[in-house]
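Z., the sequence and structure:
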Amino acid sequence: MLFGIDVASVDENKNTNWQLAKAHGPISFAIIRSNQSARVDPQFGKTWPQLKATGLVRGAYMFLDFPSKGKPKPAAPEVQAQTMVDAVGELDATDLPPSLDVEFPGGRAQTGMTPSAAIDWVRAAWTVLRDAYDTPPMIYTSARVWREDLDDEPAPDLVESPLWLARYFFKERTPARRDAAAFSNGQRLPPVPAPWGSAWAVHQYQGDAIQHPGFSSTVDMNRFNSLLRGSTGDTVKWAQRRLGIAESGKFDNAVFDAVVAFQRSRDLVDDGIIGPRTFAALCWK
């Protein structure tokens, strides 16, 4: 089980020690906020190169603001997405694609938008990110958001985006859980929004966790959906599409051989497992 975290300046961590977090978390990846609306996160410029220097697989996410009754109208979604592109700049071959945060803290009703209009707002930001980086961005959301706020609207153009799903199984403001056994045998799987079938890449399973090595305040805990021989489902199909091989949905010997060949072509560890680094490289293929 490979764990990771996501943080933003609102978590108010002081003097973060990323080396300690990586070694004693332990964590394999980290995703940090680049911007909310058209405002760059004040810690992004300092933290982004630190993640690379530490050797973590790194990712950035933008929090997409929607209109909200009684509040000033936010920047257009295209402007919000371009703010991310300008802040993040070029990404490395083993960086995660940019992530687009799709959620409605006050509920979609507060936006005054229909589900279709809200998805169009998402699509406008998504398109800017896709065109800038020449790959579909990841989407952070939850099955609840997609069902209750977006009425499970079909989104055939968005389903190539790997999903980063929120579904909390542990209490907030409690010590960070990093127990692989808690997820063994398919326990505590995140529900997946209908358009994606069963495909997901990252699961945010605990919010505002405390006492994580290297951090003075809170972090959100995540785990990666590693693929290896014996894995099945729509996430395997996604990997097969990226590898350019038949979509059986089964990680068999043929898939293993294709993954190893791909890893060798990218100077990655050729273990035949799709973990965060190989996943990131596949996203850019």
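The chain has two domains: 3-225, 226-285. DSSP finds eight helices and nine strands in the chain.

Let me know what you think.
H.
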